[in-house]
């Protein structure tokens, strides 16, 4: 498990932008089963989270269409929440970082680590904005 002094500033990059921090399995269940659209970010300490995932996700929210709900949990820190999120992300294997869009409780779009790694934040944002156009 990562220390709080390392993780909290990385969490703040999303929570300061309106994301709800999920730390328990019950919070994850409630958040991902909401009506409307919910964007879930499994945050991470890795370089691709810092350089592409978090900035790309934040930039994706500048478009006209946006998810109704924004939530996040941190891999290696919010272990209970991440385990439950990964259960609900099946059949996708565990991946951090990752970004998932749910609509009315159903997973409709997924960006796994291999979609994030090596891509610039702008490409992540464009991918998510296309999903928002389709589902939000």
UniProtKB/TrEMBL annotation:
<protein>
    <submittedName>
        <fullName>Putative bacilliredoxin, YphP/YqiW family</fullName>
    </submittedName>
</protein>
<dbReference type="InterPro" id="IPR009474">
    <property type="entry name" value="BrxB/BrxA"/>
</dbReference>
<comment type="similarity">
    <text>Belongs to the bacilliredoxin family.</text>
</comment>
<dbReference type="Pfam" id="PF06491">
    <property type="entry name" value="Disulph_isomer"/>
</dbReference>
């Amino acid at each position: 498990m990562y220390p709080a002094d390392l993780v909290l500033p990385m969490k703040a990059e999303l929570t300061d932008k309106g994301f709800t921090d999920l730390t328990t399995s019950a919070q994850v269940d409630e958040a991902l089963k909401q009506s409307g659209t919910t964007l879930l970010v499994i945050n991470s300490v890795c370089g691709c989270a810092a350089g592409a995932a978090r900035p790309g996700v934040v930039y994706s929210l500048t478009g006209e269409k946006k998810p109704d709900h924004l939530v996040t949990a941190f891999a290696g820190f919010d272990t209970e929440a991440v385990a439950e999120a990964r259960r609900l992300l099946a059949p996708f294997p565990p991946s951090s970082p990752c970004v998932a869009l749910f609509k009315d409780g159903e997973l409709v779009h997924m960006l796994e680590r291999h979609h994030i790694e090596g891509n610039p934040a702008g490409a992540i944002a464009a991918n998510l904005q296309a999903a928002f156009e389709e589902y939000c």
